[in-house]
Amino acid sequence: MYICICHGVTDKKIVQTIEDGATSMRELSRELGVGTQCGKCTNCTKKILNEQLIDIVNVTEQVA
Fold this sequence. Notes:
Layout: E1 2-4, E2 9-10, H1 11-19, H2 25-32, H3 42-63
Antiparallel strand pairs: 1-2
Helix pairs in contact: 1-3
InterPro entries: BFD-associated_ferredoxin, BFD-like_2Fe2S-bd_dom, BFD-like_2Fe2S-bd_dom_sf
Pfam families: Fer2_BFD
Cofactor: [2Fe-2S] cluster
């Protein structure tokens, strides 16, 4: 699904960028341009970011 129409960024691209090491909105904005134009994608992008970071923490806890 497209999250940022202005820059043509999908949810899959956001997840991939997080998996590649992005951990903040600033990093996602720098890498993908999300939230830098109209800003309507910001809330959805933050939700995806938070969900992915929680998943990463949960997996790390299970491994440790």
